[in-house]
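Hey team,

Filing this mostly as a record. A colleague (T.K.) asked me to run one chain through the structure pipeline before their review meeting, and I want the input and output archived in the tracker in case anyone asks later how it was produced. No errors, nothing strange. Just documentation.

Input sequence:
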Amino acid sequence: MKLISVVGARPQIIKAAAMSRAIGEHNRKYPAHKIVETVVHTGQHYDENMSQIFFNELDVPEPGYNLEVGSGSHAEQTGKILQRIEAVLIKESPDCCLVYGDTNSTLGGALSAAKLHIPVAHVEAGLRSFNRKIPEEINRVVTDHVSDVLFCPTQTAVDNLANEGISEGVHRVGDLMYDCILFYTKRTKLIEQKILKRLGIRSKSYYLATVHRAENTDDGTRLSRIFDALNQIASTDCPVVLPLHPRTVKCTHKHGLEFTNWIKVIPPVSYLEMVVLEKNARLILTDSGGVQKEAYWLSVPCVTLRDETEWVETVESGWNILAGADKQRIIDCVQRGHRQRDVASKSIYGDGNAAHRICNTLQPPQTKAKSIF
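Output structure:
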């Protein structure tokens, strides 16, 4: 079968790495049932540290197409993706278009394929924060409702789809990011001490923070409260390492925000470097969905800088606390986050074989079986 994989942001490139590796193994094992993959990069993330470094580090095949849509408003960005990916889909005429997650690249790829009557498969289907004010939620819902095959990471995601009347084509496969954390954590052992030494930090002697979601970066009041909390935590407790997203950099300048010397602001890091920083942090503060899960899998306490999360299992387990953007609540949640909790149950997110299940669903390897398309 012929597969188009659409990526545009760094989390999607990481997931695509797991898929491309599984596709290669699938093709070697079942040469009569090959999956021929072409990666299409929308260019939603175009900075070297946010895009190309991940292709190089994770051995993702170079994109067959780069749409170079760049930044812009949601309408502008999604419109460019729709227009430019349509031409690729018409030219390639794939059997399926595979999209990941909840970005504008996800939505643009799914809508364009659906309008061309090309089957859509959505990885990370069924996630819901139940907050329609955030763009990611709109992207998730619309993508799920135009998809033909929905790959869910958890039973909660399956249940969410059922509640919306979607039951056909739904498969609980586990979480691709869990595949990645299991596979790549082995590689981080070779670079761990080098990275910590370079940054001048010791294991469990710092907090790690990431802030990038529009709900925080586009709201000057929320962003100011978050950074006030980080400044106080860093100056009274222990240093905070803050890899700063390009969007957040622009917003800090726009709102005139500054950091104390106790906050170590660094450029965005590669995936392997991020795993090292997560693994060795005393606690993580983040508004990233992927980082919430990685903290859970690495058994590092997490404080989420959002009012809700689609990864509810991390909260229910006690490893993740929702703090929103209130300064004092963030500080209080950091103190709560140090308390002893149960060992994280990794099985909630599968067994690390999500990518293989996706491959075997898209292109069944049995001799007499046909592709589901």
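Quick notes for T.K.: The first helix runs from residue 10 to 29. The chain has two domains: 2-175+350-362, 183-349.
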